[in-house]
Amino acid sequence: MRTQEVPVSSEPPAETQSDIDAEIEALRKAAAARGLSHPDRDYPPYRSSILRHPRAAPVEITDPEAAELSGPVFGAGDVTALDADLTRRHRGEPLGERITVSGRVLDRAGRPIRGQLVEIWQANASGRYAHQRDQHPAPLDPNFTGVGRCLTDDHGRYQFTTIKPGPYPWRNHLNAWRPAHIHFSLFGAAFTQRLITQMYFPGDPLFGYDPILQSVTDEAARARLVAGYEHGRSVPEYSMAYTWDIVLDGPRATLFERPEAEEERR
Amino acid sequence: MTMLPATPSQTIGPFYGYALPFARGGDMASDAHPEAVTVHGYVLDGEGAPIPDALLEFWQPAPDGSLTGAPGSLRTDPTTGVLLGRDHTGFTGFGRVPTDADGHYALRTLTPPAVGKSAPYLSVCLFARGLLHHLYTRVYFPEHEAAQAADPLLAALPPRRRATLVARGQGPRSYRFDVRIQGGDGDGADAETVFLAFPLG
């Protein structure tokens, strides 16, 4: 059982994968021409979204002095070097495929997001989260919690060492399985650039069945959630390398003309 | 100038609880600060049911009006790696608090100064399982009625919609602010919190 509102003793969900597939396909066709990056918040194939999306359109803020155009900052004291290695947080080594995940955090103008906080969390190699409410009958790993954080460097780069998470079942519909993924939380220069998302692994056979990934209805946008495997970065006899660059919304056109933007272009 | 396409948002899911919250995340100001105020309330879904797996983040100017923020919200112990949380020697401007099993959250902070033409407000970013893309809203305070009449956001909203952005006073130095993600039918539609969009890219 994956969601609080579904008691353990409840009947299995009535809808089958093919019911969900048909809904996903209809919404994909309806959205095809729009080419949006972000999912619609109203995406019924992901059942939990039905009561958790606003009906009214958001009110646009054009105030150039809005507080949201600046944002939180973090520093060297907020993280330790070990926070970026999820395989060394316990006495022993976790089970699973040891991997690195690295990339750059950029804004839409291609400028690096420097010195900002990147946070990740994930299931273990068996597809189980170290969370009390995760009751999937897969083993917990005493040597893996699945939490990491780091600050981006001067080029916007981040890197984590971890293990590849497993896929897991959930209760959206009968026989629903999430593709393996790592949750990412990112900050930009402005609060408006905040992003929480999920990184997937290339070639996962579950992509087409998953309403959360498919909520991104544009195919090219979905592809931007999938990491690349980069053999040249793999460490011989130690870890396999995945790379994933992240592009945050913004900046606004006016912010783009700030002096540091000039500097970056030189 | 070609702009890069953005990385899509995905839901925070139900299992962020051991990863994102940190000690004193909701205490932007110390309990002991003589001017600390409490802002608390419930996050509610389209049926008015509390949401036990939401995460709220807050951003605001420091008492001197600056919007530069300061590091030190998380503070990690370099010996053990344990998250210590802020020590209240400075004001970081950033707060993060998950809802509890009742869908309730509480924040302790300092009433922000006004910035620009706006009345004072806290900026809020809301995440939840079931929410595919985060939502922005604001908390305004009931004492600033005159400034709110001239606030560019509030002044443009019909009264019932505007009311969703103004916290209610609840005893000394305490405010109630609920976030209703989805309004009901008919008159209930106005119960939906006003959410904000920012022109980007």
UniProtKB/TrEMBL annotation, chain A:
Gene3D superfamilies the record matches: Aromatic compound dioxygenase (2.60.130.10)
One Pfam assignment: Dioxygenase_C
Region annotation Disordered: where it falls in the sequence: 1-20, 31-51
Family that this chain belongs to: Belongs to the intradiol ring-cleavage dioxygenase family.
Name this polypeptide is given: Protocatechuate 3,4-dioxygenase subunit beta
MF (Gene Ontology): ferric iron binding; protocatechuate 3,4-dioxygenase activity
Annotated Intradiol ring-cleavage dioxygenases domain residues: 101-129
EC number: 1.13.11.3
Record GO biological process: 3,4-dihydroxybenzoate catabolic process
UniProt keyword annotations, A-Z: Dioxygenase, Oxidoreductase
Name of the top EC class for this enzyme: oxidoreductase
Domain of life: Bacteria
